Amino acid sequence: MFARYFTLIRRHLAILVPVLLILAVCVVQAQAATGVVTATVLNIREGPGTNYTKTGSLLKGAQVEVVTQNGPWSKIRLKSGITGWVHSDYLQLSTAVQTPASSGTVQAKSGMVTGSVVNVRSGAGIQYALKGKVSRGTTVTILGQQPSWLNVRLANGVTGWIHADYVQITEAPAANNQVNSSTSSGARIEVTGSTVNLRTGPGTNYGTQGQVKKGEQLPLLGEQGGWYRVQTSRGVAYLAGWLARVLTTETASAEEIPSSTGNPEENSTEETGTVPDTGPEGYETVENETPVLPEENQPQPVMVANRVALDPGHGGHDSGATGYSGSYEKDVNLAVAKKVAELLRAAGFEVLMSREDDSYLSLTDRVDFANSSQAAAFVSIHCNGSTNPETNGTEVYYYIDQDDPVVVAQAGERARFAQIMQNSLLRALGRKDNGVRDNKNFVVIRYTQIPAILVEIAYLSNLDEEILLHDPPFQDRAAQAIADGIMEYLGSIQV
After folding, report:
1. What distance in Å separates the CA atoms of residue 471 and residue 458, rounded to the nearest whole number?
2. The whole model's pTM is what?
3. What is the DSSP letter of 89?
C-alpha cells in the first residue's frame, strides 16, 4: 500500500515542480522593466561601469528588458537573449526596476564611521573617483557589500562606497538615512559646471526648466541615478551630479565625478561610442555651457615674444585626478609647473603663472588670465586619470575653434606647438605615446586667444606612473621637457 501511495506522490511532484518553476520565472519576468534607448548610440558593456569592456551598442528607439540596476547602470536583456549593462540615464523606463541588495549584506543595516576622515568613492576600490568624505561619528545606511568595501547612503541621500575597515556595522537600520529634504539634513550643493541645465527628471531625456551658473548653491533634497534633486525658486528640479559638489557637515568635499568620467570620465557627453577615453578631470566644457563667442574681424592679440603663461591645473578644493594610492593631481601639477618656470626664467623668459600655491581658480579665471597675459604661449600642465588603472602614457591636447577667427588664424601654430611638446615629452620620459589630440572639450584651450596647449604628463591613476610622478628626478625630466618644448616652439616663430 505504501509503495502505491509513494508512486502517486512522485507522479504529482513530477507535475507540480515544473509548474512552480514556470510560475517563478513568470514572477521574476513580471518584475522586470522595459526600457527604450534615448541616446543616438548607446554602448553595451560587460559590467556596470565604463571600465568594463564594450560588447555592443544600441540605436535610439531600441527596446530592451531591464533586469536590475546597480547605481546609475542598468543590466538589460535583448530579445536575442544577450545581456549586458548600459547607463540608466539613456533609458526611458516603463515600470519600476527591482534593485536587489549587493551580495553579502542585508539591506538597511546601519553603520557608524570610525575613521577620522574617510573617502567616499564612486565604486568599490581606490581606483574609483573620489565622491566626497565623511567624518568620524557619521551614521550611514549600508546598502550592499563587496570584499573590503561597503555601499552606503548618507543622510542627504548621496550614495557611494567606503572601506569597510572604517565602519562599525550594527543591525538596526539608520532611520535618518532616507532621502531627506534640505530642511532636515541641511545639505546643499554647489554648481561646478559653468552653466548647467535644470531638468524635470533625473536624466538628459527630461525637459529643461532653467539653468544655474557655476558657484550657485541650492538645497539638496536627494539623489537618484547620479542626479541631484534640488530645490529652486521655480520648484523641485534635477541636475547632473557630476556637475555639482555637495556642501554638508557630513560631506567635507564632494568632488565632481566625471567619467568619468570621468567622470569616472562620464562627463556631460552621453555614454555613447563617442565618449573620449581620457582627459583632465574638471577641465571639460559641459553640454549646457553657453560661452559668448568672440566677435568677427577681431585683430590678432598682441603677444610678447619672450613671455610664457603657465597654468598648473586644478588647486584648492579642486584636487583633479586622484592617484591609485590616493594622491592628488593638483600637487604634482604645481610642483612640475614651478620647475618649468624656474628653467624658463633661467633661460631669460618672463613667466606668468595662473597659481603659485594651492589656490582655486575657475576655468573662466584661467581663460581670462591667458587672454590678458599677452604671452606668446600658454601651457596648461596636468596629470591624467582613468577608471582603468592599466591606462598609461603621455598626450598633448590643442583645439581650433572654427567660429573664432583669431584662433583659426593660429591653427597651424597650435597644432605644431602640440606636436613639438609631445615629441619633447616622449624623448625625456619614455612613456607610451598616446598622441596629439584635437579636443574641443577643454575650456582652457578652447577659449584662449593665444597659442595654447594642454599637457598630460602621465596617468596618476596608474600605480607605476603615480610613483614616477611623485619622484623628484622624474618631475625634473618632465619640467625640462616642457621647458624645452616651449623654447623650441618660440624659437621657431616670429611674434
Report:
1. 13
2. 0.47
3. G
